[in-house]
């Protein structure tokens, strides 16, 4: 009887184990098919991105032709500015498409041809502009494209159409593969579900059989359970005590975070104060017994020690500034917003007046244009605009007269505030990086810890707005603050 029971138990165990192994295999298959589906989805998204980039490139080509014509017809330098900006954007967009299609030789070949034609096309457009600037009529460029222009434009369109067609073909193929992967994933999931039901049924049957066998030893299990409950109660009590201790420790650490820093700063001051008597002692020793004072000792006291103390003081001061800045950010994040009608013109005027001494000192020209009124938190808006204006003053180029323009307008139910300068500019790759905490761009020749713009973006988000940057190195920068016309009621409460 016992032998038969053991065999039955062994068979049950092996069956359940085999079922779980099969279930694990099915789960892995589901994960594998899901990852394949995700890969196909990424390929489809990549193809759509390439298509959109090609469309953007076509729009740039159309824009540069429109700006050329506008300049030739009107002679307005603003068209020329748009022309030059677009001419600079086209190679960047081509390089972007090249990065996206680096794995497609046929697309790369078309793109290389497109790049060569673009250079030729830009040269033709520039020639017409030069002719206009030289006093020519510019009639040919202002009216209709000449034969050479038409040929180049047609070739550009043919290449872009071919690239778009290739991407469309890839999109169709990849969507078909993605759909196949979805069908496969569904089939695998269904199979896994069926297998799960089978394994569950077998497990329930085996469990019931086991429970019936365990009924005969219920008394022993009850005793074990009683002992286990006592152990759990004791262990829970220990865990509660440990948790309370951890909480007390966290409280102490949070309140004493600055203590080590204060001690270091204090002892650094004492070391700094001790340098003077040491120097006096060295001077006296040199007078009385110069042979006992080595050059290494003098250099250590007069050079190494002050330099080391200076490094320590600089580091502790920086750490102190960082802690204070983080605490300010934390407090600001908890502050309850108070919506009110904010006269943006008066606010901008007040900010400029507060910085007038620095503006006059640097010889900066500040121009202000009307800015619409918003209903928002006055303090937060003032901190944002003030930070942007201060940065514009701080990062002007010293080899040319500084010019800062503050303006605003309504757009799509929002208020757009712009702070533009002609300073050193920001590398395009850093346009988002500068809004990260403790991150800065360019040469670090101005004081700061990389917190200001992070604070600005955090405040803008709390007000339901956004902050963006548009800049080119050595050509200044434009910071755009977009705010809702009125702060939503739910945004005025700190949750």
Note the total helix count: 12
What does the largest sheet look like? 5 strands, mixed
Order the strands across the largest sheet as they lie in space.
Answer: 2-4-5-7-6
Mean pLDDT: 76
> Percent of residues in helical segments?
over 70%
Low-confidence stretches: 138-144, 242-255, 490-495
Count of domains: 3
Query: Alpha-carbon distance between the termini?
Result: 68 Å
H-E string: HHHHHHHHEHHEEHEEHEE
InterPro entries: BphY/WalK/GraS-like (IPR050351), CHASE3 (IPR007891), HATPase_C_sf (IPR036890), HATPase_dom (IPR003594), His_kinase_dom (IPR005467), HisK_dim/P_dom (IPR003661), HisK_dim/P_sf (IPR036097), Sig_transdc_His_kin-like_C (IPR004358)
Protein name: histidine kinase
Catalytic activity: ATP + protein L-histidine = ADP + protein N-phospho-L-histidine
Keywords: Kinase, Membrane, Phosphoprotein, Transferase, Transmembrane, Transmembrane helix
How would you portray this structure in words?
Its EC number is 2.7.13.3. Keywords: Kinase, Membrane, Phosphoprotein, Transferase, Transmembrane, Transmembrane helix. It catalyses: ATP + protein L-histidine = ADP + protein N-phospho-L-histidine. By secondary structure, the protein is α+β, with helices and mostly antiparallel strands. The chain folds into three domains: 2-198, Four Helix Bundle (Hemerythrin (Met), subunit A), CATH 1.20.120; 259-334; 339-492, Histidine kinase-like ATPase, C-terminal domain (Heat Shock Protein 90, 2-Layer Sandwich), CATH 3.30.565.10. The chain contains twelve helices and seven strands. Strands 2-4-5-7-6 form a five-stranded mixed β-sheet, with helices on one face. Strands 1-3 form a two-stranded antiparallel sheet. A hairpin with a 2-residue loop joins β4 (403-411) and β5 (414-421). α1 runs antiparallel to α2, α1 (2-74) runs parallel beside α3 (105-133) and α1 packs antiparallel against α5.
